[in-house]
Write a structure and sequence with these properties.
single chain, 232 residues, alpha+beta, six-stranded antiparallel β-sheet, 5 helices, 6 strands
Length: 232
């Protein structure tokens, strides 16, 4: 599947633009701040329903506007087309009465955004990837979540359920301390957490040969590296 055309309205610093694309490599050259990274982030939105960076949907709306709209035209390997439209409106604006985010595939709106993840796989490589080595474990978990969720819908469901239970447990701790109730939350966290751990560990094992091969090439085969997943 490749992206044939990308249309942007009110997305970050881009007012309204349309970009025709071709199969293979497409290069974009421009001054700093021209919007090259924003263009890449729009593609990520159409695949993952969110920004690739630590930005909220509201922050992705162009300054002074009420909404953004992204539209991508794709061609599958069998020649069939896919039309993906992602829009977000500030609450209370005139573009969409109740505000919020919607995603449509070929004109049909998804009931759940998570149902779309994996249809159009996407990978972003950037200088910020050094954070996977130098920063805290949060970045590595975020990377694993983004990759595995596109390959395994069960994993995405487990992550969403884990986060939902964790949020409920944290809210409960502010108002109550019943041990039986906390035990119920903890059992659910353990169940979903175990599923997440096993899938992350299996994914790391699949990556290990590739990491070793490319690291050997980069180091002139003078060094070796191993990749393991360890959870506390």
């Amino acid at each position: 599947m490749y992206l044939k055309r990308l249309s942007l309205i009110n997305f970050k610093n881009i007012g309204q633009e349309e970009f025709p694309l071709t199969p293979g490599i497409n290069c974009f050259v421009g001054d700093n701040g021209a919007g090259k990274t924003n263009f890449i982030d729009a593609i990520h939105y159409l695949s993952m329903c969110k920004s690739a960076f630590s930005m909220t949907d509201t922050q992705s709306v162009r300054h002074g506007e009420e909404f953004f709209l992204l539209e991508g035209s794709y061609e599958r390997s069998d020649g069939r087309g896919e039309q993906i439209v992602c829009s977000f409106a500030r609450r209370g604006g005139s573009f969409k009465r109740n505000g919020g985010k919607t995603l449509k595939r070929n004109g049909k709106e998804y009931d759940r955004l998570s149902d779309h993840v994996g249809l159009v796989p996407v990978v972003i490589v950037s200088p910020a990837d050094t954070a996977l080595v130098s920063d805290a474990a949060d970045e590595r978990r975020r990377y694993l979540n983004g990759c595995i969720s596109q390959l395994d819908r069960g994993y995405l469901s487990a992550v969403m359920r884990y986060n939902a239970v964790l949020s409920e447990r944290n809210r409960y701790l502010k108002v109550g301390s019943d041990e039986d109730m906390l035990s119920i939350y903890d059992r659910q966290l353990a169940e979903h957490g175990q599923a997440i751990y096993e899938k992350r560990k299996a994914f790391a094992e699949r990556l290990q040969p590739l990491v070793g091969e490319y690291y050997a090439l980069l180091s002139g085969r003078r060094e070796q590296v191993e990749l393991t997943y360890r959870s506390e």
